């Protein structure tokens, strides 16, 4: 008789070691690297799945939050989803993720985000494309910004001022993480590369920061910006002039940003090019909490009648009325169901990655002309993105 998969959220050191071996095989890394990753994620955040008492796969959950409309919405990141090769294609990954999603719902988490290796598996589970980040590159010699309005000061990578400055920028960008400890640890305590950190502005009135590493490559020396914040126009100019000062030893600058990068607006020429992109997916775990805790544009007074289907979480099914007032949302059950969509379509609508018209063309949503118009007004915003990969 075929045995069932057993999900476990209580992992000991032996479980972690077994999961680490599977993780290394999936991500082509050494046992030392994978055990360091598990330690970074913290053992209590590891989930495993067993068959016949043997650990055959696992993942890490990262409890944190994400900024939407200026408000922090609870979110759990999913990372390192791995299944032993001999159990791939058996439904183990699907079972692992289903149990994890149900656990998150029981804990009252609003949403979940992950970077997929393949989309099809996670779409079956209710995840959909919801945001991205883009890798940009520019030749240092072409920056041509010499004016430096603010001082730049070298500081330790574990300086506490970074948390405060990051939050000021993050709350104004849809999709930015309200970072958890493992995310910050990768920046503050890098395990491989040497990171350099500089404060932009005075110690009394900091207006941004830049954290970067430097590398030699076949096509020249590269400065990789690992994290950055600019809160003023003066900070943006200083950001570029500081990077321009590296032109004697650096050939290219690389950084992460949105598909529409406002940093490049002050460059004299269109020298910056997109080198790659990473898309992330989001799932609405608790519909009522997600829609009622995110922020909305102030000045909108309206309501949207939704009809949602969710094959995994029964509480997300049915008709709901989303009422918007003074930048906040309220959810009540019932209504006319004028905008029909499944939980995947709601994910893309929620983040604003695609407009309601685009989602309708892709057959992700269906609604009356008025409902489409109302949804467009409610979820309007800039393209969602985040700085971090996990």
What features would you describe in this structure?
Strands 1, 2, 3, 4, 5, 6, 7, 8, 9, 10, 11, 12 and 13 form a 13-stranded mixed β-sheet that branches. With 390 residues, the protein is of the alpha+beta class. The longest helix has 15 residues, at 13-27. Helix 1 (13-27) packs across helix 2. Helices cover 28% and strands 35% of the residues. The protein has 11 helices and 18 strands. The chain has 3 domains: 6-126, Gcn5-related N-acetyltransferase (GNAT) (Aminopeptidase); 134-279, 3-Layer(aba) Sandwich (Aminopeptidase); 286-378, Nonspecific Lipid-transfer Protein, Chain A (2-Layer Sandwich), CATH 3.30.1050.
Q: Key terms for this structure?
A:
globular, 5-stranded mixed sheet, 35% strand, 13-stranded mixed sheet, 18 strands, alpha+beta, 28% helix, 390 residues, Aminopeptidase, 3 domains, Nonspecific Lipid-transfer Protein, Chain A, 11 helices
Please provide a brief summary of the model.
Helix content is about 30%, strand content about 35%. The protein has about 400 residues and is α+β, with helices and mostly antiparallel strands.
Q: Number of DSSP strands?
A: 18
**CATH hierarchy, class of the largest domain:** Alpha Beta
Oligomer: single chain
Q: Quick one: CATH superfamily of the largest domain?
A: Gcn5-related N-acetyltransferase (GNAT)
